[in-house]
Amino acid sequence: MLNLISNAIKFSNPKSVILVKVVDMVSNVEISVKDEGVGIEQEHLENIFQRYYQVNKSLNRNAEGSGIGLSLIKSIIELHGGKINVKSKVNSGSTFTIELPSKVVDNESESIKRYTDGKVEMIKIEFSDIYSI
Questions:
Q1: In the sheet where 28-34 sits, what is the strand order?
Q2: Deepest of 34, 80, 109, 128, by most Cβ within 10 A of its Cβ?
Q3: Which residues, other chains included, contact 92 with Cβ-Cβ below 8 Å and sequence gap of 6+?
């Protein structure tokens, strides 16, 4: 998840909005990261989860990376019985959606504070917090 948020930051303008959404779908959990970044051309979408694949391979590209992050994310998600997909439009941004099977935990180990209206406690994460982990 941290890698998806990091990518959203890396490929978006400084004042862009990045939306992280978690939805409990009873039998699974859906997590999405949506950005207003540069987007990904359709021809690259089927390959971006391949190891070492980079959309921009030029030496003067704006963002660094080895091209392994999305491949790793996909492998970990699939090990947990889930799946990941992406929708993107050039110059409009991308939405990465993860679906994972739900797991029942006993209430004592639940660490998320839930309110009576069903909302959950939110935390604010600064850009520097992501890279200091």
A1: 19-24, 28-34, 93-101, 83-89
A2: 34
A3: 36, 39
Domains in the chain and their CATH numbers? 2-131 (3.30.565.10)
Nearest in space to 55 (alpha carbons), one of 31, 88, 78: 88
Q: How far apart are the first and last CA of the chain?
A: 13
Closest by CA to 84, choosing from 10, 11, 28, is: 28
Instruction: State the burial class of residue 26 (Cβ atoms within 10 Å of its Cβ: 0-12, 13-18, 19+).
Output: exposed
Q: CA quadruple 95, 93, 7, 20: dihedral positive or negative?
A: negative
Number of residues assigned to the chain: 133
User: pLDDT digits over 73-119, tens only?
Assistant: 999 999 999 999 999 999 999 999 999 998 766 665 555 566 666 66
> Quick one: how many helices (H) and strands (E) in the chain?
4, 4
